[in-house]
Design goal:
Radius of gyration: 48 Å
Order of helices and strands: EEEEEEEEEHEEEHH
Strand content: over 45%
Structural class: alpha+beta
Helix content: 10-25%
Distance between the termini: 87 Å
Shape: elongated
Number of strands: 12
Length: 257
């Protein structure tokens, strides 16, 4: 590989690194910037809804994971999306005590609120402030409108435990916070390549798979070698006969003289 394309996002200015370290197994190759294209980053938007009695105070910055990457959003606007009204909300409570006596909110303690038992539903009329204070709720924002038992007479240590639900309402409005990414950010498409000095020394090694030869393919090279040896023997015998004939003719000429 002689080059690599790298995508950048969230850039505050039109600038990318001049080099890119490419890891290839145990080796690391340093690539240099060849070309880069910048574009205006597309603005992303994130909304968060609130339901509150008072106008919420959302954070100015919000970090969310978008497409697997952390993205920082900036608060753009906060607006009320509905009028104030009573909205339904439920609260679960636990009472301790035996029937026909007082029931205690929470485990029985010297300062535990005590409310007379009512077999039809958890008593709340006349005790709204006591119940809401126990639940840590503002009496100006919440009101109890109904209640019901979920379970009565559950053995609990040395007494009985009773589970109930209070159906309440909260006086509030809805709000929407709109967050956006910074409009001054850029995206970039950068092309990095191997330096020219390294390109001349770059070599590619190709390994071909071994191919198993058939019996016939193995026979052909042997046959060629055998023919070659036979040809050499014939040439050698021919040379010996040639020189023997010359030698014989030389001896005959001497005898004639």
């Amino acid at each position: 590989m002689n080059g690599k394309i790298v995508q950048y996002s969230g850039l505050k200015e039109k600038k990318v690194p001049d080099t890119y370290e490419l890891e290839n197994g145990a080796q690391t190759k340093s690539l240099i910037l060849k070309d880069v294209e910048y574009s205006k980053a597309e603005e992303k938007q994130l909304t968060i809804d609130y339901v509150a009695f008072e106008k919420p105070n959302p954070p100015q910055m919000y970090v969310a994971v978008i497409d697997g990457a952390e993205t920082t959003f900036t608060l753009s606007s906060l607006e009320q999306t509905s009028d104030y009204q009573w909205r339904d909300v439920d609260f679960s409570t636990a009472w301790y005590g035996r029937q026909l006596g007082d029931f205690y909110l929470g485990k029985i303690q010297p300062d535990s609120p005590a409310i007379p038992f009512n077999s039809e539903n958890p008593r709340y009329v006349g005790y709204e402030d006591t119940l809401l204070n126990y639940l840590g709720l503002d009496t100006d924002v919440y009101r109890i409108v109904d209640s019901e038992w979920e379970q009565l007479d559950e053995p609990w240590e040395n007494t009985l435990r009773h589970s109930g639900v209070y159906h309440a309402q909260k006086y509030c409005a809805s709000w929407r916070a709109v967050y956006t990414t910074s409009s001054g950010e850029y995206e970039a498409k950068a092309v990095y390549t191997v330096p020219e000095d390294d390109q001349a020394n770059t070599s590619v090694t190709v390994q071909y798979p071994l191919k198993e030869m058939t019996a016939q393919q193995q026979y052909f090279p042997f046959q060629h070698i055998l023919i070659f040896v036979c040809v050499l023997l014939i040439l050698l015998i021919g040379l010996i006969l040639f020189f023997w004939k010359k030698h014989k003719e030389k001896l005959q000429n001497k005898e004639k003289d």
